[in-house]
Amino acid sequence: MVNNKILMYMKLKDINKTQLSALTGIPATTLNRIINGTVINVKTTYMETIAKALGTTIYNLFDLPELNQP
């Protein structure tokens, strides 16, 4: 399932996938797979890096039923 939350924040920040890849240091192919929902278990470090680059939290970008919100 496509992560529309990431896409929404990218649109708000006016950045594309290539720019987000550069900001996060996450390879563009990996980032694309995360956004497209091909990666089932996204590394926590990737989630945190993406959230930081987009100026939000991992809880706003990812469905995390196994983690409690702070």
Q: What is the first-to-last residue Cα distance?
A: 26 Å
- Count the beta strands: 0
- Top CATH class: Mainly Alpha
- Level of helix content? 55-70%
* Major β-sheet profile: none
Which regions are unreliable across 5 or more consecutive residues at pLDDT < 50?
none
Instruction: Return the string of H and E elements.
Output: HHHHH
Q: What best-fitting shape do the alpha-carbon axes yield?
A: globular
Strand fraction: under 5%
CATH superfamily: lambda repressor-like DNA-binding domains
> If you consult CATH, what is the topology?
434 Repressor (Amino-terminal Domain)
Structural class category: mainly alpha
Number of domains: 1
CATH architecture classification name: Orthogonal Bundle
Q: Tally the helices.
A: 5
Radius of gyration: 11 Å
Q: Which quaternary structure do these chains form?
A: single chain
Q: On the 0-100 scale, what is the average pLDDT?
A: 90
SSE diagram, text form:
Layout: H1 4-13, H2 17-24, H3 28-36, H4 44-54, H5 58-61
Task: Describe what you observe in this structure.
This protein has 70 residues and is mainly alpha-helical. It has a single domain (4-61), classed as 434 Repressor (Amino-terminal Domain), CATH 1.10.260.40. It has helices spanning 4-13, 17-24, 28-36, 44-54, 58-61. The N and C termini lie far apart (26 Å).
